[in-house]
Amino acid sequence: MRFDLEKMLESKRALRRELAARPLADKLRMLDALRERVLTIRAAKPAPDAGALREQPPPCGKSDKQA
Amino acid sequence: MNIKELIALINQMQSDGIIERYAIGGAVGATFYLEPIATLDVDIFVTFKPETGKAIVSLQPVFDYLKARGCAMRGEYIVIAGWPVQFLPPTSRLVEEALRDAVTMDVEGTSARVFTAEHLAAIALQTGPAKDKARPLQFIEAGALDAERFQAIVARHGLSDARKRFEEQFLSDAS
Questions:
Q1: Which residues are registered as beta bridge partners of B84?
Q2: Residue B17 region, left (φ>0) first, then alpha (ψ -120 to 50), else beta?
Q3: Cα separation, A6 vs A32, whole angstroms
Q4: What are the chain A neighbours of B107 within 8 Å (beta carbons)?
Q5: Which residues of chain A approach chain B closer than 8 Å at the C-beta?
Q6: Measured between alpha carbons, how far is residue B99 from residues A49, B48, B90 in Å?
Q7: Staple partner for B124: which of A66, B9, B21, B135, CB 3.0–4.6 Å?
Q8: Cβ B127–A32 below 8 Å, yes or no?
Q9: Chain B residue closest to A14 (CA)?
């Protein structure tokens, strides 16, 4: 088996394009399924290390929920 | 868990006059243009009809309306159709413009108001948290951005420096 990185990256790009082109209702159903998976994985994984580096919350009064 | 149900309830809330207009932003908004992006919550940007004598916008009518329809509060979120939702009033001219220019899309017979791709990318440039910093790149790679419209938004809202930083960080190979 040969690892052709460029070919692998192109196949990933093609998959993303194919997913992006799906009907909106399909994509929203996928979001529902993805969220359920994320919650399942979160519930299964051990509590994070207290010393782990995390993104800092925005300063008070400045929401990061804009996009 | 069903986003389409959620959108239908927001539409109903708009028809009932609780909110003036709304638009979906964040990862869910981006999913209308890109491949599905895993997320745990939904960001709904809202405006209200101006009430005389009231300077402060309150989300209480939204919460009261939704709680009366069986939705539960969870911290700063309200859970609709299994999804935690944040209602966000516009906090910048860019977001006000994005709400005004949002587009209506059809989801199997349910209409959904969504920010344009150009506004979603510009908002990510302006205030996106670290995890969303590369979102404009996703729009560019997907060919989802109208370059002229995006550039006009960037210029209008003083985001040229932010765009330059983004290009240095993510597009330096292309230069």
A1: B79
A2: left
A3: 32
A4: 24-25, 28
A5: 13, 15-17, 19-20, 23-25, 27-28, 30-32, 34-39, 55, 58, 63-67
A6: 40, 12, 8
A7: B135
A8: no
A9: B142
Q: What are phi and psi of B136, to 5 degrees?
A: -55, -35
Instruction: Return the CA Rg of chain B.
Output: 17
Q: Domain locations in chain A?
A: 5-43
The answer to whether the Cβ–Cβ distance between B107 and A25 falls below 8 Å is yes
Question: What span, in angstroms and rounded, lies between the C-alpha atoms of B62 and B85?
Answer: 12
CATH class of the region B1-115: alpha beta
DSSP B16: T
Residue B51 burial (C-beta neighbours within 10 Å; 0-12, 13-18, 19+): exposed
pLDDT per position as a tens digit, B29-44: 999 999 999 999 999 9
Residue with tokens 């966000």: B88
Question: pTM for the complete prediction?
Answer: 0.86
User: Has the ipTM of the complex gone over 0.85?
Assistant: yes
Rounded to 5 degrees, φ, ψ at B133 are -60, -30
SS3 of residue B98 by DSSP: helix
The residue type of A47 is: A
Tens of pLDDT, residues B53-102:
666 778 899 999 999 999 999 998 999 999 999 999 999 999 999 999 99
CB contact under 8 A, B127 and A25: no
